[in-house]
Amino acid sequence: MNAVDAKPVKLAVRSATKVYRTASGDLLALDRCNLEIGRNEIVSVVGPSGCGKTTLLWSMSGLHSLTQGEILLDGQALTGPHPDIGLVFQEANLLPWRDLDANIRFPFEIKGQTPDNEWIDHLLHRVGLGGFGGKYPRELSGGMQQRASIVRALSLKPSVLLMDEPFGALDSFTREEMNRLVEEIWLDTPTTIVFITHSIEEAIFLSDRVVVLSPRPGRVQAEYEVPFPRPRSLEIMATKEVFDLTNAIKREIVGSRKRAGETVREVQHAS
Ligand SMILES: Nc1ncnc2c1ncn2[C@@H]1O[C@H](COP(=O)(O)OP(=O)(O)OP(=O)(O)O)[C@@H](O)[C@H]1O
């Protein structure tokens, strides 16, 4: 059974079309793209470079307006940034002149809200940053900075977390650690997560479903259920089933790029 069939729809992308007006003409990034994400589902979006993954994610955040179509959050049209939606980017984007505590509390200052200190402390400990609140970003590794940015996003208690290649800049070991951390946090506090990645392995480890976008203009080309139980151990990730799924998704992406006559760029970790 499709995971979406079993869960109420949290986020719906309805015929999303995005045209960028550029100096050299109009660029169609998304073309009538449709997608539904169930409540507390983790969905990864993969696809060839430039196919519109970030455009789709930013549209889902309400930060980008669509040229046509709509995004529905709990059935309501999204018209701009929404407090229920948190974002994590590839760069941690911490303010270098503020320590970790002050960085995490920054969104609350902007919104004029009182932070839930207990919740923030819990999150900091959860990601292994307990006791690091007084450190400045330059004193933290890339992985620690990215953990801090996850805490910053979760501190606002969003019901949807949108993650745009959050671990793309990290070494593979730290990346695996971060994947496990996201899974642990999700098992603790289920949240709807949409995750963009170039790594099929990462997508399979994290997701209930992997969505493959077509070459630009982006549309959903294929969807794969990921049926493996959580937590997903290294043993599970080493099974033939995972290997076969990885290859099926890789073939889908490479095949679509060939059909589109595009240059094939390496798809990470798709062995
Ligand atoms: N602000 C913008 N103005 C004009 N064109 C843009 C803009 N943002 C993205 N594009 C173009 O839209 C297309 C889709 O870009 P997008 O970043 O959404 O793709 P992507 O799949 O996330 O790419 P990648 O895998 O390389 O990160 C690309 O051709 C990109 O150059």
TrEMBL record:
Segments forming domain ABC transporter: 11-240
InterPro entries: AAA+_ATPase, ABC_transporter-like_ATP-bd, ABC_transporter-like_CS, ABC_transporter_ATP-bind, P-loop_NTPase
Keywords: ATP-binding, Nucleotide-binding, Transport
GO molecular function per UniProt: ATP binding; ATP hydrolysis activity
ATP-binding is among the record's keywords: yes
Homology family: Belongs to the ABC transporter superfamily.
Protein name per Swiss-Prot or TrEMBL: ABC transporter ATP-binding protein
